[in-house]
Task: structure prediction
Amino acid sequence: NLCPCRFYLHPEMSNDLVGTHPPGAHSLVAASVGYFLEDFVDMLCNQKLHQSWELLFHHTVVIICFGIAVLLHQYVGFALVALLVEINSIFLHLRQILLMANLVHTTCYRLNSLINLGTYVVFRIATLAWMARWLFLNRHNVPAATYAVGTVGMAIMTPMNLILFYRLLRSDFFK
Result:
């Protein structure tokens, strides 16, 4: 379900990310809300706040934005595009596992760093830029309250992701 080919298979999504979405997309976004809620509670219970506040903040924004899409049965297509960001999470999590296993000086870590950086640019930075552009271009077709939530969400997520990108570059490439 999380595939750019969805635009090919469901071209109507290219024109309408508000009311149009492929079969199963609503369930995927709803399941994602559940995942982010569970991960939020897990972090609250098992991590120190100073270690997890950024992710807790991120999860709060996602839960609110995706929750609106799930409850209103609208903007599911937009939320589906937002889930493309999570493709990069595979490599971010693998990076963390390799760090915990003390495998920083391995070919596997280096290869993952390169893939992580590439997927970060494509699936995080480019996707967020596209979403911000879409939101701006469609501001007259989106109710003011929803536009405000989307704008605030983008205003929070974009700098957070740029800061994380800088940290990854500094840590993995500019030691």
Notes: The mean pLDDT is 90. Helices lie at 5-9, 12-15, 25-46, 49-72, 76-83, 89-100, 107-137, 144-172. The CA atoms of residues 35 and 50 lie 22 Å apart. The chain has one domain: 26-173.
